[in-house]
Inverse folding.
């Protein structure tokens, strides 16, 4: 084995070692398994790994492979397996490691490895588990061989190995046979690199399998004994399974297809249903793998023979397999000869459709799926897009007509009524496949299904699938065709003309590439009729009026769909229609969302359609060309100026909280408006803004919605900012500079900052910010003191965009805004805090890239110019620690924590150490705000900084930190304890206990106790869980054998139990004689309740006396029935005292008063004291409420 330990060839394709390690780690975890085989594997793996380490080798795939192969060799002597357990484990691990071993090694040592595996594979007495693992190892070995190795004809060659694998694929043991067949399939699926795509062993495998099947068929026909036939049948099924494995690997040679078909046809004609089913499976794999030219006549003959083998309609076992073969055969034909396949559709579909009439759900479901597969995949899309006038077009048209007629006249007959759901799926798939060419052939099917859905009395059970079919028709043929076949009939309904308002939501969700003119002429006029009905109604709030209003809303909801890639935009979107929509926008607030969405869809759909990244189907191109979509955009651009003016007015009159959709529509039109019109519109808005600002200076002029006119106009300026032409940039930045300085108007300030963020969304806007960068910096710095607090997030966001375009030659903007950004980390607004943190990191990135900071020197002896780098940036941030106010110092520490965590890997070690030691000084500060920030920094330090740096400074840090371990306010003690726990997890208890001050070691002891307590609690919980786990494998065994639980249950029910949970038993007084436990009457003398002994005191309590040595019973009291005045009263008394059913069907017994009931189902309890009388041991309690039912009947 020395020659196997050569270094690994790096050029070989070796799988990731991590995957091998993952598989081996799963085996290692079984070292304590209760199963012997799993524990044995883990022990052997552990011994092998120990041996590899002792030899000084690394745990590589080759080392594992060589070790396990040597172990296998030791456990096999000549042709016998000496140690089967060791051999099984070695083969198992070889199966795992072979795919990860270098292929060059497997090729070089093929003979040696095969020689070691051969004794196991050829021994019939070896266990199946060992053979399965050996097959897996042999599979990896064969896959690794190159084409040169397959030319070897010696006794020890890949071909000899594959012959052995083929022998095992006929093994009588199912698992061995299945493993061998799967291995052959994988081997043939991965041929070695060669000019031929077919595996070198494909011919050999096909020839052997074919001859084997032919010989078995011959033997079966010659044998008359049933037992022999049974054995032959099993062997035939195994051979057919092997053929299926070879064909599914797409490796059956073309030259062997004809002999195979002949043999399979013979097998299909046998009387054994399992052989027939397996033969069909082999056919299925063969047809699915066909990718080369075929002999059409031969293929047609085979297909015809299979068709002639049509099984019974109710033969579940064979019918499903036969349907799959027919479908795959047709799909193979369509793949190779599409035009021929289309011509055969009319002859194939009726055969498949016959099985839909079967009563078996499995059969008619399979038949419907085969029908759909032949329609959808058997007719290529390329043939459907051929224009009229060609021969193929007429052929496809005839097929579509045949399918539609067959579905309408045959499948929709009463013969197939049990499979209506499957039929609707078929017709839905057909319409989806044929698209616009389904019109007008499928209108009959549409009418039938529509009538099923419309007829409410029929109570059609498949309404959802019927609606899906109608939706498919709308998407494929258009709403005009569907609504002409199934009219809405919203205004004039009758039995002959039923209303179909349920169609409106279906049209809304599926309409696209439709005619807007049709909507205007046929659907929209219904709205005015219903509006008239509502107006003339005596009660506008009646249910009928609400139904009318719902229909109106649904009709308007269809409009966006008709605007999605409208096919007749230029003729339909006239000035009159635009004026009508504008009038509705002004007059009806509820329609603004729908109309704005429709206008936005007009632009968005056409722009997406013309985008080069969008994939456009042939059906869409047929409806609307790319050039047509570009013309639509140009047409809308010509009208965009007027539409924008209208939208500006609507925006001004809409409540600020509900006008986002108007702004989105404005943004869509701003994208296509011509530059000249945009400039005019912008100038108008600027003029209105100036006028509003002037008027508001004198008096607060507000709009009807309560919003200031200046703020509304400023919103429009913000929306237009990123589209403004370069000629209007001066005016835009002039507005920004003016509005940003309005100290008393926070709304204007916020919108001014948003102009900068809006500009950053486009490339031209970024260039504008870069062009006016110095002016913007100046404005930002000048307004630092006058900015409202509510504008802080918008201001910081604007700073981010300005900083992104700042020049590296002048980074003075960073130190100028640094103090404000640091202070913003303590802002009450969460968004402002988040932006300030990201801005701190962004400034660090800019400084890291380098640059110049002019005028950085604040004193005369300092340099006027400094170079930008990270160390300089940290120096500037740390300068905030010298501030006078605790708030500023706290903010500076928070900022340092943020940037230290972000730049910990880029900073030098000495700078980090200096920052840490400086910030830790503030742990001893008396200000809680500063200390809180410093504790936060310590937490970041522990998480982010190198371990050796923290450990060197551990004692000093803890000495300062423990000052706050006794402070309860602000959760200081909890935070300190949390930090100590983290340090213990990182460095261990001993190191922390040694570094912590002596007087504070109680905290460490407390943490240790808490952890110990938590571990005990967890262990106790696990023990309880194990205790509560079932002791028996099944509920039946528990019921039969777990008598103790039954006794406990009985004992609990009786109420008397001993210390072990068992009920106590008492022996009644039997006189002088002892109780005979063997007597049949012994059970009558045993009681579960303690027997009561009567004394003289008990006799006195009873109502009887002694007279002349006799008992005299006192009969002064009468029975309850005798005391009643009549029989009726006695009956009423009995009824009143009877129990009644209460909540949860419990019996309730009456106690004393009518309102006093008991929930017990036992006899009534003792009478309670009357009202006002209090028992000495009881407490005054709130009287129970009378039981009332939750719902009224």
């Amino acid at each position: 084995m020395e020659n196997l330990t050569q270094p690994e060839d790096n050029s070989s394709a070796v799988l990731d070692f991590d995957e091998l390690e993952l598989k081996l780690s799963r085996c290692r975890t079984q070292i304590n398994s209760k199963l012997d085989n799993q524990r044995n594997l883990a022990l052997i793996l552990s011994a092998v790994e120990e041996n590899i380490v002792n030899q000084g080798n690394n745990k590589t795939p080759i080392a594992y492979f060589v070790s396990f192969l040597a172990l296998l060799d030791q456990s096999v002597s000549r042709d016998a397996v000496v140690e089967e357990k060791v051999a099984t484990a070695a083969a198992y691990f070889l199966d795992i490691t072979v795919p990860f071993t270098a292929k060059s090694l497997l090729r070089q040592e093929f003979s040696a490895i095969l020689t070691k595996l051969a004794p196991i594979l050829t021994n019939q007495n070896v266990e199946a588990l060992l053979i399965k693992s050996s097959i897996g190892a042999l599979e990896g070995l064969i896959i690794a061989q190159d084409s040169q190795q397959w030319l070897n004809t010696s006794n020890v060659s890949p071909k000899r190995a594959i012959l052995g694998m083929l022998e095992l694929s006929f093994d009588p043991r199912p698992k061995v046979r299945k493993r061998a067949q799967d291995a052959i399939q994988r081997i043939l699926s991965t041929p070695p690199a060669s000019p031929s795509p077919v595996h070198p062993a494909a011919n050999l495998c096909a020839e052997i399998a074919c001859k084997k099947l032919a010989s078995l068929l011959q033997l079966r026909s010659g044998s008359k004994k049933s037992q022999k036939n049974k054995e032959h049948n099993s062997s035939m099924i195994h051979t057919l399974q092997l053929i299926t494995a070879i064909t599914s690997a797409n490796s059956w040679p073309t030259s062997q297809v004809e002999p195979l078909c002949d043999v399979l046809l013979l097998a299909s004609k046998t009387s054994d249903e399992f052989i027939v089913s397996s033969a069909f499976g082999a056919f299925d794999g063969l047809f699915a793998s066909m990718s080369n030219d075929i002999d059409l006549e031969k293929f047609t003959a085979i297909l015809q023979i299979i068709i002639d083998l049509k099984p019974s309609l109710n033969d579940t076992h064979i019918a499903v397999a036969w349907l799959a073969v027919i479908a795959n055969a047709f799909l193979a034909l369509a793949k190779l000869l599409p035009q021929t396949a289309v011509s055969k559709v009319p002859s194939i579909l009726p055969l498949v459709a016959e099985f839909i009439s079967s009563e078996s759900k499995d059969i008619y479901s399979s038949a419907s799926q085969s029908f759909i597969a032949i329609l959808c995949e058997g007719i290529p899309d390329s043939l459907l897009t051929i224009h009229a006038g060609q021969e193929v077009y007429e052929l496809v048209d005839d097929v579509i007509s045949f399918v539609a007629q067959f579905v309408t006249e045959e499948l929709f007959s009463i013969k197939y009524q049990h499979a209506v759901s499957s039929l609707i799926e078929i017709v839905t798939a057909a319409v989806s496949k044929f698209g616009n060419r389904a019109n007008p052939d499928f209108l009959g099917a549409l009418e039938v299904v529509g009538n099923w859905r419309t007829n409410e009395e029929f109570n059609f059970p498949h309404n959802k699938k019927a609606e899906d079919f109608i939706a498919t028709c709308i998407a494929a043929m258009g709403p005009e065709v569907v609504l002409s076949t199934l009219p809405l009939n919203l205004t004039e309904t009758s039995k002959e003309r039923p209303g179909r308002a349920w169609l409106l939501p279906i049209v809304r969700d599926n309409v696209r590439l439709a005619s807007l003119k049709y909507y205007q002429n046929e659907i929209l006029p219904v709205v005015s009729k219903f509006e008239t009905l509502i107006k003339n109604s005596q009660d506008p709030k009646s249910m009928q009026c609400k139904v009318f209003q719902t229909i109106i809303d649904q009709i308007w909801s269809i409009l966006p769909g008709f605007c999605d890639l409208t096919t007749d935009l230029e003729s339909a979107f006239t000035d009159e229609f635009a004026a009508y929509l504008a009038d509705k926008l002004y007059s009806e607030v509820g329609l603004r969302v729908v109309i704005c969405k429709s206008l936005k869809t007009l632009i968005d759909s056409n722009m997406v359609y013309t985008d080069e990244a969008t994939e456009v189907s042939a059906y869409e191109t047929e409806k609307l060309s790319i050039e047509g979509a570009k013309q639509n955009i140009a047409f809308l651009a010509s009208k965009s100026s007027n539409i924008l003016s209208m939208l500006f007015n609507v925006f001004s009159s809409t409540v600020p909280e509900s006008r986002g959709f108007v702004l989105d529509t404005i943004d869509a039109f701003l994208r296509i408006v011509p530059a000249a019109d945009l400039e005019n519109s912008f100038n108008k808005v600027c003029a209105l803004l100036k006028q509003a600002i002037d008027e508001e200076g004198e008096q607060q002029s507000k709009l009807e919605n309560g919003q200031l006119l200046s703020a509304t106009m400023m919103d429009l300026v913000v929306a237009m900012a990123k589209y403004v032409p370069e000629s209007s940039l001066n005016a835009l930045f002039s507005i920004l500079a003016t509005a940003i300085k309005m100290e008393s108007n926070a709304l204007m300030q916020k919108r001014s900052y948003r102009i900068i963020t809006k500009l950053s969304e486009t490339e031209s806007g970024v260039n504008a910010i870069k062009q006016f960068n110095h002016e913007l910096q100046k404005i930002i710095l000048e307004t630092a003191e006058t900015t409202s607090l509510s504008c802080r997030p918008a201001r910081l966001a604007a700073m981010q965009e300005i900083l992104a375009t700042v020049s590296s030659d002048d980074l003075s903007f960073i130190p100028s805004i640094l103090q404000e950004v640091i202070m913003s980390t303590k802002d009450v607004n969460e968004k402002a805090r988040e932006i300030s943190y990201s801005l701190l990191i962004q400034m660090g990135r800019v400084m890291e890239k380098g640059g110049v900071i002019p005028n950085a020197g604040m004193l005369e002896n300092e340099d006027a110019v400094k170079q930008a780098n990270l160390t300089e940036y940290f120096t500037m941030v740390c300068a905030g620690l010298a501030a006078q106010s605790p708030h500023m110092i706290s903010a500076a520490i928070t900022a340092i924590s943020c940037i230290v965590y972000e730049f910990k890997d880029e900073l030098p070690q000495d700078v980090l150490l200096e920052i840490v030691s400086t910030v830790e000084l503030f742990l001893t500060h008396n200000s809680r705000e500063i200390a809180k920030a410093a504790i936060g920094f310590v937490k970041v330090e522990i998480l982010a900084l190198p371990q050796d740096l923290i450990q060197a400074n551990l004692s000093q840090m803890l000495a300062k930190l423990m000052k706050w371990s006794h402070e309860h306010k602000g959760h200081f003690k909890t935070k300190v304890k949390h930090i100590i726990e983290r340090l213990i997890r990182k460095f261990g208890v001993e190191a922390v206990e040694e570094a912590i001050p002596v007087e504070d070691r109680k905290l460490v002891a407390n943490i240790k106790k808490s952890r110990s307590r938590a571990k005990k609690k967890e262990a106790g919980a696990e023990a309880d869980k194990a205790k509560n786990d079932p002791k028996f494998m099944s509920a039946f065994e528990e019921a039969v054998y777990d008598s103790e639980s039954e006794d406990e249950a009985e004992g609990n029910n009786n109420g008397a139990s001993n210390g072990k949970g068992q009920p106590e038993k008492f022996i009644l007084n039997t006189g002088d004689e002892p109780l005979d436990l063997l007597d049949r009457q012994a059970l009558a003398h045993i009681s579960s309740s303690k027997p009561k002994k009567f004394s003289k005191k008990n006799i006195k309590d009873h109502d009887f006396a002694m007279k002349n040595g006799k008992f005299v019973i006192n009969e002064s009291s009468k029975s309850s029935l005798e005391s009643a005045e009549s029989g009726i009263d006695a009956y009423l008394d009995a009824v009143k005292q009877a129990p009644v059913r209460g909540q949860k069907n419990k019996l309730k017994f009456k106690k004393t008063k009518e309102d006093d009931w008991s929930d017990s189902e036992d006899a009534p309890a003792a009478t309670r004291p009357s009202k006002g009388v209090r028992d000495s041991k009881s407490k005054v309690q709130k009287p129970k409420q009378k039981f009332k039912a939750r719902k009224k009947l």
